[in-house]
Amino acid sequence: MASIDLNSDLGESFGPWPMGDDVSMLSIVTSANIACGFHAGDPAGILSVLKAAAERGVAVGAHVGYRDLVGFGRRDMDPSSAELVADTIYQIGALQGLATAAGTRVRYVKPHGALYNTIANDARQAADVIAGIRAVDPALVLMALSGAPIVAQARAAGLTVVCEAFADRAYNADGSLVSRRLPGAVIHDPQAVADRMLRLVTEGRITAIDGSEIALEAQSICIHGDTPAAVAIARTLREALSAEGVALQPFVHG
């Protein structure tokens, strides 16, 4: 039987400013990428989400990003290697402490936003993030963009890498994500998302924004938690996969 992990970016609310419906998403996804305070999230809110994830048996990952609260971590930045390595260590460490208090533990790392997209192809910044992860715990799994150079780079450095696909994002013909600045970059129709992800899981292929067909390796599917239809998309996707006999489970166990 085919199996897949569903992940979502959670813990991104900040004080009185809510971002997404974390509790509802935690009843649907199998892994949660939890903000670490650099691009979003505050300690009390992050701790609350970690406790909710622990109660539901959802695997937890550190959603590390650039130090960019105002830009929500979606602005390109060029920190020095010393900064990026230390920032990666700092964020993982902060989440580890909160996770321990919540009765769970950090199992993987998924970079956020602009950092995620940059390290997909930027070997220097990728090496810095990899070094930061290894300095904390070489057993942590890295979640990365399917088909990107960082996948081989991280595996060569000794990390276990899980490739992910994005349920609600359009793809370019080269396997990269369509820029959010362009029309059609985010897909809002829950059924359309479910149909394309079901095909990805069963056939390993997806239709790019120009109509071409591309092959993608994916052990996890991301549903962004900050889009208006996030919960509906996640629920429709989970139901569609389950109806076809696809097992939904975290990519990390134990």
TrEMBL record:
It is an enzyme of class 3 (hydrolase). It catalyses: 5-oxo-L-proline + ATP + 2 H2O = L-glutamate + ADP + phosphate + H(+). Transmembrane segments: none annotated. Its EC number is 3.5.2.9. Pfam families: LamB_YcsF. InterPro entries: Glyco_hydro/deAcase_b/a-brl, LamB/YcsF/PxpA-like. Keywords: ATP-binding, Hydrolase, Nucleotide-binding. Belongs to the LamB/PxpA family. Catalyzes the cleavage of 5-oxoproline to form L-glutamate coupled to the hydrolysis of ATP to ADP and inorganic phosphate. Forms a complex composed of PxpA, PxpB and PxpC. This is 5-oxoprolinase subunit A.
